[in-house]
Design brief:
With about 350 residues, this protein is α/β, with parallel strands linked by helices. Helices cover about 20% and strands about 35% of the residues. Pfam families: NTP_transferase.
Length: about 350
């Protein structure tokens, strides 16, 4: 079995962050979202991975390399533009051959990995196997309709009037029959080749499609709210570790990670929190569910439930919460701004905030 990882999307819902960074590389607990998916693929026993890349190909390739750091063999598959999930399967036809494969959306996060899903597929041998989860607003997703016996009978992509609240999770397993389905597709009303249409073709032609309704945790990390929630979830599992410098005037409470090369002085940190290598925290408060990436600076400030990307500086700010702050961003005081702030800052931006 091979894996097909989609890492070519534009990431429009995470702009301005994704104007200068691939959305799959935005870090969760100081590790790119994409890396969690690659690790899940490896842990499921899959070694050959094709990564579909677009405009951010160089950045993805620099981060992942040949895959050996993950115990994988990676092949890059260029896509000229995002033209739908089924289009990614189409351009990967030669790479995939007649092998079974798992298709994994590179900005998705599934707690518990995909090992059980892969094992079930190998044992039962359907032509396709999908994961479903109940959502409050299915209009934003691919939606599945099940019959009384729980079998998939219909699929729609982002329907105006959903027939169920069961959304497709961004992990799919396919046998080689999907290539016949994809080859017969025409662009949808979104001018894309929809994977839901390909699965519907399999159903309509009597091919077996199985589904699993998951009750565990899944997120499409395509927006700031979901990024922060996934960051919270991952930080819940960290173990305390202090390899950097922490002075006697500082207080660390709970699960706090201070990586080697980081320094904390005169500060109070209430975990779960991670402070990346080379970062400085001075006379500040870091609250729960905060990730500070490497080479950042937090001085005389308070920050909670936030993600701060590499090289950002927060100096003299009364309080920041529920925020995603881009690489090399600078946050400093200004004369008149409310004491509590919610920010989404693009890379290299500069914002002034009053105390």
């Amino acid at each position: 079995m091979k894996a097909l990882v989609l890492a070519g999307g534009a990431g429009s819902r995470l702009r301005p962050i994704t104007h200068t960074s691939a959305k799959q590389l935005v870090p969760v607990a100081n590790k790119p979202v994409l890396f969690y998916g690659l690790e899940a693929i490896r842990e499921a026993g899959i070694r050959e991975v094709g990564i579909v890349v677009g405009d951010t190909a160089r950045e993805i390739e620099d981060a992942v390399g040949d895959g050996s750091a993950f115990g994988l063999e990676v092949t890059y598959l260029p896509q000229d533009a995002p033209r739908g999930l089924a289009h990614a399967v189409l351009i990967a036809r030669e790479y995939l051959g007649d092998d079974d494969f798992v298709m994994y959306l590179g900005d998705n996060f599934v707690v518990g990995g995909i090992g059980d899903l892969v094992a079930r597929f190998r044992a039962e041998r359907p032509e396709a196997q999908i994961m479903l989860t109940r959502v409050s607003d299915p209009r934003a997703f691919g939606v599945a309709e099940l019959d009384g016996g729980g079998r998939v009978v219909g699929l729609e992509e982002k329907p105006e009037r959903p027939k169920s609240d069961l959304a497709l999770v961004g992990v799919y397993l396919f046998g080689p029959a999907v290539h016949e389905a994809v080859a017969r597709l025409k662009p949808s009303w979104r001018d894309e080749l929809e994977i839901t249409d390909a699965i519907q073709w399999l159903i309509d032609h009597g091919r077996r499609v199985e589904s699993t309704v998951i009750t565990g945790y899944w997120k499409d990390t395509g927006n700031v709210t979901d990024m922060l929630e996934v960051n919270r979830l991952v930080l819940e599992g960290v173990e305390p570790s202090v390899r950097g410098e922490v002075d006697e005037a500082s207080e660390l409470i709970g699960r706090v990670v201070v990586e080697a090369g980081a320094s904390v002085a005169g500060s109070r940190i209430v975990g779960p929190v991670i402070v990346g290598a080379g970062s400085r925290v001075r006379d500040s408060y870091l609250g729960p569910f905060t990730s500070i990436d490497r080479d950042c600076s937090v001085i005389d400030s308070e920050i909670e439930y936030s993600i701060v990307l590499r090289g950002a500086s927060i100096d003299g700010v009364g309080r920041v919460e529920c925020s995603l702050i881009g690489r090399e961003a600078q946050v400093t005081p200004a004369p008149r701004v409310p004491k509590a702030h919610r920010l989404v800052l693009g890379d290299h931006s500069k914002v002034q905030i009053s105390k």
